[in-house]
Every structure is written in C-alpha cells, then in structure tokens.
Design a protein that fits this description.
85 residues
Length: 85
C-alpha cells in the first residue's frame, strides 16, 4: 500500500478540536532560524556544486583531499621571533 502524499491528506480538523482553540496562537515564521544557524554544522551547497556531489560522503572525500594537499603552516617559534629583532 502506497503512503498518501501531502496533497492527498485530509486537511480538516478532527471533531474533538475546535478552531477557536487555536485562535490565540500566533505562528512566527523563522523564529528559531538564527539559533539553528549558530548551533548547527549544516552547510548549504549551491545548485551547481550539488550536481557534482551525489552525497555527503563525496563532499567529505573531496574536502579531505584538499586538506591533505595543502601545505602545513610552520608554527612561529620563539627563537625565530628573537632572531628577527
């Protein structure tokens, strides 16, 4: 048996719920958007980039490849600082 799609679902309230029970509630669009952006590690890809990478494993593999190829930075040592003076 196939699940009903969103558009096929019955949108009526159940008999035990009254519309006036919901009259005082005000939905606020985007209420938690900023909090989610600050506290999540989800990154949105541009559509052209999304076409190249089929899944998150492909994206992670490509990024790890770039990380491995980058030159490691040399830490500035205290000795190098003194010699420059």
């Amino acid at each position: 048996m196939r699940k009903k799609g969103f558009s096929e679902l019955d949108d009526d309230l159940r008999p035990e719920y009254r519309p006036e029970d919901f009259a005082g509630l005000k939905a606020e669009r985007g209420k938690y958007t900023d909090m989610l952006r600050r506290n999540s590690n989800i990154v949105r890809l541009a559509p052209d980039v999304h076409k190249v990478f089929p899944n998150e494993d492909a994206v992670n593999a490509a990024l790890r490849g770039l990380i491995a190829k980058r030159r490691p930075r040399r830490a500035k040592s205290a000795g190098a600082k003194r010699a420059a003076r």
